[in-house]
Amino acid sequence: MTASLTPLDGEAGFRFDPERTVGRGPADRLRSFRTAVVLGWKMEANWTDPVLFFIYSVAKPVSAALILVVMLDVIAGASGHDYRGYVVVGSALWSFVMSGIAGLAWSVLDDRERYRMLKYVYVSPSDLVTVLLGRGTARIAVGAMGAAITLVVGVVVMGVSFDLLAVDWPVLLAVMVLGLAAIVAVGLILAAICLQTRQESWSYPEAVAGALFLVSGAVFPLSVLPSAVQAIGLANPMTWWLAGVRLALFPGGTSSIGGPGSLFTNLTGAAAPDSPTILVALLVTGAVVTLGAAVVFRWSERRAKDRGLIDQTTGS
Fold first, then answer.
1. By the number of CB atoms within 10 A of the CB, which of 57, 83, 87, 169 ranks highest?
2. CA pair distance 269, 266, nearest whole angstrom
3. Measuring CA to CA, which residue among 86, 62, 68, 208 is closest to residue 143?
4. How far is CA 71 from the centre of its chain?
5. How confident is the model at residue 2 (pLDDT cuts 50, 70, 90)?
6. If you ran DSSP here, which 8-state letter would residue 49 be given?
7. Segments in the chain forming alpha helices (H)
8. Which pLDDT score is estimated for 279?
9. pLDDT at 233
């Protein structure tokens, strides 16, 4: 990288301008973030026309929800109709999880293995975390389209009863903000892992998302799992996020946390968590994951720099 030299006032010389290499604070970070979002969106969407891209983005979550609902109706019969809203919400929201976790990790692999640009991004004035967050935000936007369409299909096609006036909007907004922050934090941990591993890491985000899918109550309550696995689920911010969104959208509906024989009910005596409990639990678990993500990524970044992993192509 060429150092930036600026003429000195009244002198026939030049001086080094550190602001051109380290950035000028929040304004430059915001500009880097916006640029990364636009870049990520163009990389996601510019391979086809908008209509085909839209179909591609929503086909997977909608088809997954339809498959789960059909399976539920076949197995549970008429009683399965009560769980349609539960399954539709879980399937729709999992689009955010898949996009958020994969977005940051795949950005590292894309730039290092496919485009060979990670080393140039790293030595630029832009902070690497800011760039990764911007790229991940673009993928989350794609997941948001799939989630919205899945919810609409669930209400219009699958007959899920939904009352717009009954929605608890403040709780919904709060849990969405906290939940998306936790998802990004998990994605940052995966990005840190991908900095240390080889090209085969492309499958890591889906593997992690699949494991979280099992312990988050996405399509079935935690009470059907062993107590040890329920404890892992209760320590997972995605569990509280899903429960909070369901409670906000369908007050009085089936909760993924609690119930007869569940670990939550045995510990607290409550049949299901209320809104304040969910918000506090989501805030605490999300803060722990976010703090852990910051520590792990900075450690991984230093180790990758020391061992030459940032400018190394690991394809085999």
1. 87
2. 6
3. 62
4. 27
5. very low
6. -
7. 19-22, 26-45, 50-76, 84-109, 118-123, 128-156, 169-196, 204-215, 227-234, 237-249, 263-268, 275-306
8. 96
9. 93
Q: What is the pLDDT of residues 235-286, one digit of tens each?
A: 999 999 999 999 998 888 888 898 888 899 999 989 899 999 999 999 999 9
CA-based nearest residue to 288, from 235, 238, 231, 248: 235
In this prediction, residue 19 carries a pLDDT of 57
Query: d(Cα 230, Cα 262) in Å, to the nearest integer?
Result: 8
Residue 301: which of 42, 68, 160, 121 has the closest Cα?
121
Report CA Rg, the chain.
22
Helix axes 204-215, 84-109, angle to 10 degrees: 150
Total length of the chain: 316
Share of the chain above pLDDT 70, in %: 83
**What span, in angstroms and rounded, lies between the C-alpha atoms of 200 and 118?**
17
Tens digit of each residue's pLDDT (9 = 90 or more) over 185-215:
999 999 999 889 877 788 888 888 888 988 9
